[in-house]
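quick one, two chains, predict together pls
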Amino acid sequence: MLRIKGGKVYDPANGVNGRVQDICIANGKVVASVDAGRTIDATGMIVFPGGVDVHTHVAGAALNFARGLIPEQHRKAVPHLHTKDRRAGIGGTTPTTFATGYLYAGMGFTTVNEAAMPIMSAKHTHEELRDTPIVDKTCLVLMANNEIVMDLLEAGDFERAKDVVAWQIWASKAYGVKAVNPGGVAAWKWGKNANQLNDAIDGYSKVTPGSIVTDLARIVDELKLPHPMHIHCNNLGAPGNVATTIQTMQRLEGNRAHMAHLQYHSYGGSDWDTMRSAAAEVAEYFNAHKNLTADAGAVLFGTTVTITADGPWQHLLYQLTGRKWGNLDVENETGCGVVPFTYKQNSIANAIMWAVGLELLLLIDDPWRIFLTTDHPNGATFWRYPEIIQLLMDAEFRREQVKKLPEKVLPRIFIQDLNREYTLYEIAIITTAGPARALGLSQKGHLGIGADADVAIYNENKDVAHMFSYPRYVLKGGEIVIEEGEVRKAGDGHTFAVRPQYDEKIEEYLRPVFQQQYTMSFENYPVPLERVHALEIVDRRTTS
Amino acid sequence: MMTFTLKEVPTVPLEAEVLSPDRIVGLGIDEVRALPVFHGKRQHRLEDFFEIDGDGGDELELRGDLGRVKWIGRGMTRGHIRLLGNVGMHVGAYMTGGTINVAGNAADWVGGEMTGGTIHVHGNAGGQIGAAYRGSMSGMNGGAILVDGTAGIELGMRMKKGLIAVKGPVRDFAGLQMKGGTIFLLGGAEIRTGAWMTRGTIVSLVPLRLMPTFHFACSYSPSFLRVYSKRLQSSGFTVPCEAFNGSYRRYTGDSSVPGKGEILMWQPG
């Protein structure tokens, strides 16, 4: 039992905006009162629910591939030496598994959503997540280029496609569905791409990127998954891609969807010379359509590594930069590309990207629908989130940063004209309450009675970048895990997986398809229950 | 001057990046004795491995066979290190200034990713001299590495600026993926010299077996070589005087990249 006494509480899900009140904790949950146990004196401190990252890449084959490709970044990374309570590792752009848990918790974040897991490497992903301490985890399984599903949609067999998706979610012990460059990654296997929603995909006559978007969103909604379809649109990164992004959002009318790393999809112009911010157009459409949520995918200047299932884009990025390139083919499911990248302040394209991420956060008026991410490690590493919070909360500081950009950029961005400043209450929404609600994790992101006792307590400080980098205490499941920057107790987090409704007979259909087309046997494909540590199942089977 | 005498050759390599003027200058002898070194995974005091004498300063003299002592002079910016025997891997890595003099042989990665200063090895050197560490975009970016003996593979790999001169023969892949700077090969090289080079100059006083992706351009007498010869003479690195006034065959490549590098081969007589 534990009481957090006298802190200023920000709990947007329960409408608490900076009120001084006690938070009582027993058995890992927030309770109405306690009569014994330790008291944390939080006078002069602010109390947030534990942070929730709705879109990050922290485990799995692609991330490990990136780790292997960038020894030069690891050499510069901060080493974490072994101590009594802590395993050794390194920080940097792709922190090692243990360090990932410590760094997230060390920033006050207690739940992370691994946003791209191929089923083929689901076992690997879950095993790495087991070694990612403290934080709770969810994973999204990659679906929009799964050729079994695409074949069924081509044949018009929607119901069976739905059963296959549901079966694959449970087989991979995933929490939701991710769509990456629908159809484009399948086309990449033939050396092609699908930039527009009506583009033909090699090998298919009826299925187009646009039809995949609509069908998959409908499948996710009909399966009643807690998190809507999580989509990385076609035509990522390209000047003028705003048209594709808005068309994608139009295709999603009538369904729920989460638009991932929207920054990468909000560019105007027609080529690199005319590229400009189209954050205003995207935000205008987005604001009017309440079926959508989004995360920023903001960019900060510096060196990082880009990792995505969007293989064709990564090949283009490699050609643009002349740096290293890694490409993986994941049989009938998806692909993956890795390219190290440096976002430069004096590059016009990079400066526009920096501005667009912040512009979206400032122009989308409902903080419950836009969340703070950098698409770690693509836009910047997650441990730099406090830098973005500072940019959001201080318009003057923001304008100082704009002054450092090349002058030619100014007519192409409009961040310098935006005066909005986030309040602490709004920061609490975009980092905790909002993403928890979008993920459908009702026990996370708030401090109401019955919530998981994941709490971040910060020393109140005008320097918010510093404040959010160094919480005074972090509690996970009611236990103090971080105290003044030191790991006190690094327990294992839980993994949440959804068990959707499907016809068990679907295995009879899948087995021969597998035996014909996959290199691994059908029996070895699903992740057995006992392979996932501390699994918590969200059961969506309907009792009939 | 401070002297460090190795007590006995360590069983596994000792990591001693504290042996650098930057780390030692301004410290009292007791503080120097307490500096941390890693022997395998265990941390020790410098005095566990060395007899230490003299007073602090910019000048260090290291005595004994230091073939298993790594990272000496790592990142140094100033001063002078004199090694009377052999030295282990990564000597002078990341250094930006000062001089290192090795009387014996040096192991691999001499001056890895250095940006300034001079390293003179009087014996033989290992592989990857002045090279980029694995994954890095560029290797040596300034300074000079002079070797009186032979050198190993991947000499100057991805180097961007600076000078490497070797009197004896060097092994395969000298100037691999070179991006700039100058390599002098007084004793020639084995195969695939200049593979993937995009810029920079490799000068050889001995005919080389070139890759088919290097193309003959012209014969001429480059005047910049005479400037280099003075630079080398002043560092006590003697070269045959006539070589620097002679005629050279110029080859460009590596056209498989494609690159704009050059290999200059001396034509005596």
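Chain A has one domain: 47-487.
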